[in-house]
Amino acid sequence: MDDRSETPRRDTTARDVTWALAALTYLGFLALLTLTPRPWGREVDQVPWGVLNPAAWLSSATWTTGTAREFVLNILLFVPAGLLAARFRGAWGLGAAVLLTGAVEVAQIPLANRLSDPRDIVANVGGALVGLALGAASRSGAPPPPPTGRATADPSAPEGDRRSMY
Length: 166
What we know:
single chain; 166 residues; mainly alpha; 6 helices; VanZ-like
């Protein structure tokens, strides 16, 4: 069997464990804030089936009620989701963030004093996009990853003297 044909396996690093713990902590905090009864416990009046009902998206009340403070807090609440999702490359990160915000709003539908609201999805996705942008910006300034162990030629060496840099 040819060892070179196997895909190299990446070892778990302290950074991976740190990211996993951060994700679990954030998801627990998010669940606590969005899925447990609110202490001020006021009744909410939502369209049946919440965000799953097209009428909720088309109602003018959806877009004219609520406060700017609530909208901004929803944005801020999902910035960490975007930062965590930025660990995935390309559309996977955006998909993970959108899936998370949708899951939260759908999970709120049967809860008595929670509101499944299209405005929240818009704000949450906006926050996740901010987090994704911050994650991408921090990654673009990061140093290149360490070598994989494969030898590469030194591009600054003269043509006839290209030896391995590693």
